[in-house]
Amino acid sequence: MALKVMKFGGSSVADVEKIRNVARRVAREYDAGHDCVVVVSAMGKTTDHLVSMADEVSGGNPHPRELDMLLSTGEQVTIALMAMALENMGKSAISLTGRQVGIVTDFVHSKARIREISTERLSQLLGERKVCIVAGFQGSTENDDITTLGRGGSDLTAVAIAAALKADVCEIYTDVLGVFTTDPRVVPGARKIDQITFDEMLELATQGAGVLHNRSVECAKNYNVTLHVRSTFSEEPGTLVVKEIENMEDIVISGVAFRRSEAKITIRNVNDEPGVAAKLFTALAKKHIQVDMIIQNETLNQRNDIGFTVSGADSAKALEVCEALKAELGGSEVVCDRNVAKVSAVGVGMQTHVDVAATMFRALSEAGVNILSITTSEIKITVLIAEEQVDRAVQTIHDAFELSKTA
Amino acid sequence: MALKVMKFGGSSVADVEKIRNVARRVAREYDAGHDCVVVVSAMGKTTDHLVSMADEVSGGNPHPRELDMLLSTGEQVTIALMAMALENMGKSAISLTGRQVGIVTDFVHSKARIREISTERLSQLLGERKVCIVAGFQGSTENDDITTLGRGGSDLTAVAIAAALKADVCEIYTDVLGVFTTDPRVVPGARKIDQITFDEMLELATQGAGVLHNRSVECAKNYNVTLHVRSTFSEEPGTLVVKEIENMEDIVISGVAFRRSEAKITIRNVNDEPGVAAKLFTALAKKHIQVDMIIQNETLNQRNDIGFTVSGADSAKALEVCEALKAELGGSEVVCDRNVAKVSAVGVGMQTHVDVAATMFRALSEAGVNILSITTSEIKITVLIAEEQVDRAVQTIHDAFELSKTA
Q1: Does B87 touch chain A (CB under 8 A)?
Q2: Which of A49-63, A218-232, B107-121, B355-369 comes out lowest in average pLDDT?
Q3: What is the arithmetic mean of pLDDT over A220-227?
């Protein structure tokens, strides 16, 4: 008999029939003798609808505390309906808001951080053999104001509760079968990964293979919570996200992640002196521009090129910042390539395999894919390429590491 | 500078534009220097929508605790949007759920009774010149479970908060201009009443002139909270509901109430012994049948006719109960008249005017309206008549007491 935290996202509970479907699934686990905490998101497009009302009533500038008061109702609706569905199936169930479950956060509305979770009430209710249905994405401050946890908040609620309760597993139910070696729409031979490490999952998530939000994976890693990413609509096991994988060294690369529509911006010939990079990236952060890759190449005459990538949507804003700073940094010109994309090979195995980078570059070269920039981390190699070559590059890397083969 | 509790019902906050409209109205009061607590209901048909989802997910039998968890979100949405709208107008505002405002109820889900209201947080926030926006209809138990107050719950929240804060007035905003002498659709000359006593309001409300739910009027009466029933869509003063009215003796009758589609059921010749009525009305209550008038006439030979009225919708169920009990009560037959209606003249003035009943019966007689039964209370005379004669009877009584004339 296990203690399971099961998390279902908005598309899994989008209407009453889907809620009943999830309830049946939970009931089977309950009947098998497991203790179940179920974390749910708002139904389907509820949050979008609430946000649009908030924008309308406030001229696009809703008060943060009140926005949290508003948005938290979305999950509250789902927990009540889910508990009713289970009760109707003869299973003892009880719904709990973030506050009732004892999730205390800081005071930063709309992206609050969890400070602590008191497990007293949950443990007592589980001891009474009740299914506990918890509203994801929300908590409350010490002043008893409702807060929300920001993007990926429901996953985070599930992981944090699993950590607090020392649950055997935290199951994240989604509309896909698990984590794939790459996007099956690009590579038809993409394979579901059975096991992956937290670190690999983190790299894959940042690179756009976003089944799970990074905050949740980080939290799971910190508290060593076993995650199981699996499908709401299938009984098949999904992907286990764990600390370490047996025979880890046999697997070189776990997956290929990519992100289209990046823009690469370079300021040429900036002064080669301390503080240049700091000035540039502080100015970009002030405008809320999320910088992705940073590439700096040494050049002659104590002058440098400093470059970075941003999402295509942010490129115009980023260009403005660079043009405004160019003179101060001593740069000669700002250039922008709007049609680039990022492709990464991710795998803890590359730490013990010396030829990963060589294999990847050779394969890309043979496929005629030109590499514009390269960055690497401990478990990831990323190349910047022309956007139109993304599909070919992903397929090529996937083939080079034989990812379609089962491990 | 006054302390005002302002309550707006669902139709006054049915969409974002209406919420902004209400916010402007509140802002004017705030700018005039008044301290404002605003109590709101769920938007428009929100509650109906939530109830229908609950019925769907639970096979028509939602768990009471979970239904309260669900329904309370309706008001929570409105308070957040209302606070945003006010903040957007530059007025300092804060939304509060029933629990946050300190409304503690008993444990009876879906029709909880308020045990106490702690005014600490409200008083502090009002002291900071914040408009406090409170979710109507809800509270929470000592165990921290969410409860709802049942029908008329938002009015009750407003009145109870006004009582706890010793507010100067509790303004109930509706879609009518106030309380009328009778239904203007029946009597075109019906007049808005400027002042009415709690007791009269209670009698009018029970009789179907339901602007205000009785629980709220009773609560206002008990704590002597001045109510002001007025229109959301007009600046005109509405109807003040107060303890006593100056020159009260000049006004004989305040209004004429009526209810169509009643059914009168009589069991003939029941035993004239103790316990007969108790048995009958206990059996009816067990089937949740709301009995309205009760009429018992003494007859010959120690046998009685016992009769009562119920709403037309309940008549079939009530008939079943009577048929099942007839033999035990010694009755000879059960008769049912399904086409009756109730008309009442209400007024505290009748306590000091001896000829009210006579005037009313004479007028009805001259108009050719046949009276089937009569009951009276301290401040009300009610007659049962044929349903088809309701309009004529109401007009006749309204004319007889010259209710179209301003007082």
Answers
A1: yes
A2: B355-369
A3: 95
Could you tell me which residues come within 8 angstroms of residue A52 by beta carbon, excluding any fewer than 6 positions away? Answer: none
In this complex, do B94 and A65 lie within 8 Å of one another by their Cβ atoms? yes
Over the stretch A337-354, which tens digit does the pLDDT of each residue have?
999 999 999 988 787 777
Q: pLDDT tens digit string along A145-175? A: 999 998 889 999 999 999 999 999 999 998 8
The minimal CB distance from B95 to the residues A58, A61, A66 is found for A66
A72 touches chain B (CB under 8 A): yes
Determine the residue among B58, B134, B142 to mutate to test chain A binding: the one whose Cβ has the most chain A Cβ atoms within 10 Å: B58
The class that CATH gives domain B255-400 is alpha beta
How far lies B315's CA from each of B277, B281, B289, in Å? Answer: 18, 14, 9
Cα–Cα distance between A387 and A373 in angstroms, integer?
13
pTM as predicted: 0.84
Q: B186-209: string of b/e by CB count within 10 Å (b at 16+)?
A: bbeebbbbebbbbbbbbbbbbbeb
Distance CA B264, CA B261 (A): 10
Q: In chain B, where does the domain assigned CATH 3.40.1160.10 lie?
A: 3-175
Show residues of chain A in contact with B16, CB under 8 Å: 53, 56-57
Contact (CB<8Å) B66/A87: yes
For tokens 């286990």, name the residue: A240
- Using the Cβ of A65 and the Cβ atoms of chain B, whether some distance falls under 8 Å is answered with yes
A72-81 tens-digit pLDDT: 999 999 999 9
Residue with tokens 């007659």: B383
* CA nearest neighbour of B398 among B259, B255, B192, B258: B255
| A67 vs B: CB within 8 A | yes
Q: Does A66 touch chain B (CB under 8 A)?
A: yes
User: Among A191-195, B3-7, B287-291, where is mean pLDDT lowest?
Assistant: B287-291
Per mean pLDDT, which range of A200-214, A236-250, A377-391, B71-85 is the poorest?
A200-214
Cβ within 8 Å, pair B66-A95 = yes
Q: What are the structure tokens assigned to A325, written together?
A: 């700073």
Number of A–B residue contacts, CB under 8 Å: 105
According to the model, what pLDDT value does residue B184 have?
87
Give the mean model confidence (pLDDT) for residues A88-110.
Answer: 96
Contact B220, B227 (CB under 8 A): yes
Which residues in chain A have their CB less than 8 angstroms from residue B81's CB? Answer: 53-54, 57, 66, 70
CA dihedral sign of residues A14, A208, A5, A347:
positive
Report residue A330 as tokens.
Answer: 């001593």
How many angstroms separate the CA atoms of B141 and A164, rounded? 26
CA angle A396, A400, A404 (to 5 degrees): 90
- For domain A3-175, the question of CATH label 3.20.20.80 is answered with no
In chain B, the residue whose alpha carbon lies closest to the alpha carbon of A16 is: B57
Q: Which two tokens stand for residue B98?
A: 């029933």
Q: Which of A193, A253, A254 is nearest to A227 (CA)?
A: A193
Looking at CA atoms only, how far is residue B220 from chain A in angstroms? 30
Rounded to a whole number, what is the distance in Å from the CA of B53 to chain A's nearest CA? 7
Q: Which residues from B are below 8 Å from A20, CB to CB?
A: 57
Instruction: Check residues B373 and B145 and name the one with the higher pLDDT.
Output: B145
Any residues with CB less than 8 A from the CB of B353 and at least 6 apart, and which? B249, B252
B55 touches chain A (CB under 8 A): no
B129-154 exposure pattern, b = at least 16 Cβ within 10 A, e = fewer: ebbbbbbbbbbbbeeebbbbbbebbb
Cβ of B84 and A67 within 8 Å? yes
| Number of CB atoms found within 10 A of residue A160's CB | 25
CATH 3.30.2130.10 in chain B is located at 255-400
